[in-house]
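In response to the reviewer comment on reproducibility (Comment 2.3), we provide here a single inverse folding case reported in full, input and output, so that an independent group could reproduce the run without further information from us. The structure tokens appear first.
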């Protein structure tokens, strides 16, 4: 056993692999350095709307279900354990713990009378989770326990940060300048280290297409979006959508990144519109109706597209364009994706 608990906990926190298994290992190691009879760890939703159970030790199923219920987020907020602060025990509360239904209906009947609870916060003050250590004894936690848990909490927070794998994936998108993550309630939260963008505003078509791609189970999607309006007066931006990995998708279904559009193979905005509808399987007549142009104009655009993509057929042009991310979803215009 290592003399300094920070060393072994840090090793576990930095271990690759599935998040629930890493969290379980952190709790078991923590129990070797801070005495407790049971423990519970949960992930915080990115927008602060609730918690998702992650790992526990020595709790029966009824207690776990109780802690996973709708009352706990409110009690965490009331007691202030949803923000960076020292660990809190029931003896620190200004009122008896029995006045909280979580204690009266869940923990005391299970035989627990004392606890240490705290928010797990990463250095940039992002609240990533919640930790509670329960004791069947009635003695309040010692100052030494409080100090040790507070010292170890940043390591625990780093170990369960759901953004970690997403940030690793985001670094693979060259030139990414803006990004958000989706939360389970359908809203978005900032992606650490990247800026916000007007294209992420409420009701954004970009987010609508991204949600559809994640809902369809696509691990990776890339498309173009016009800047400044439908006719792209400010050019195009590349949109990359990635689903969350298996271990974080329970709280972060996916993320959306914006980066420069790069090489558009000389395609004009109108040709990109035609190409987008072609990728969606539209015939020339349908493209003409959608863009309010003559079928002959569509045919001319397609001739130019085939030359620029060096494709002998419209089918191959659509395949090459989609693979290269040269796809402008029809949702940017008047019609939706079929």
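Designed residues, in position order:
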């Amino acid at each position: 056993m290592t003399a300094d608990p920070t060393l072994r906990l840090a090793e576990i926190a930095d271990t690759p692999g599935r998040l629930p298994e890493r969290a379980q290992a952190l709790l078991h190691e923590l129990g070797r350095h801070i005495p407790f009879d049971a423990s519970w760890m949960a992930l915080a939703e990115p927008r602060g709307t609730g918690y998702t159970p992650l790992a526990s030790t020595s709790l029966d199923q009824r207690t776990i279900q109780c802690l996973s219920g709708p009352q706990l987020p409110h009690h965490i907020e009331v007691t202030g354990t949803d923000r960076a602060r020292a660990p809190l025990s029931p003896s620190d509360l200004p009122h008896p713990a029995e006045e909280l239904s979580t204690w009266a209906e869940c923990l005391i009947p299970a035989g627990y009378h004392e606890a240490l609870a705290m928010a797990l916060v990463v250095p940039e003050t992002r609240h990533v989770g919640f930790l509670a250590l329960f004791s069947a004894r009635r003695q309040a936690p010692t100052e030494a326990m409080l100090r040790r848990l507070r010292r170890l909490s940043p390591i625990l927070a780093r170990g369960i940060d759901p953004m970690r794998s997403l940030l690793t994936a985001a670094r693979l998108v060259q030139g990414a300048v803006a990004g958000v993550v989706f939360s389970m309630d359908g809203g978005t939260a900032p992606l650490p280290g990247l800026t916000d963008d007007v294209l992420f505003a409420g009701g954004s078509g970009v987010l609508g297409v991204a949600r559809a791609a994640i809902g369809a189970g696509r691990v990776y999607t890339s498309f173009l979006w016009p800047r400044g309006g439908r006719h792209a007066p400010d050019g195009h931006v590349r949109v990359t959508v990635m689903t969350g990995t298996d271990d974080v998708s329970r709280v972060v279904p996916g993320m959306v990144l914006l980066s420069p559009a790069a090489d558009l193979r000389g395609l004009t905005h109108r040709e990109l519109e035609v190409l987008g509808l072609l990728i969606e399987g539209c015939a020339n007549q349908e493209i003409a109706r959608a863009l309010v142009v003559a079928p002959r104009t569509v045919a001319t655009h397609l001739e130019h597209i085939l030359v620029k993509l060096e494709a002998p057929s419209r089918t191959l042009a659509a395949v090459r364009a989609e693979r290269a991310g040269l796809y402008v979803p029809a949702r940017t215009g008047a019609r939706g994706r079929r």
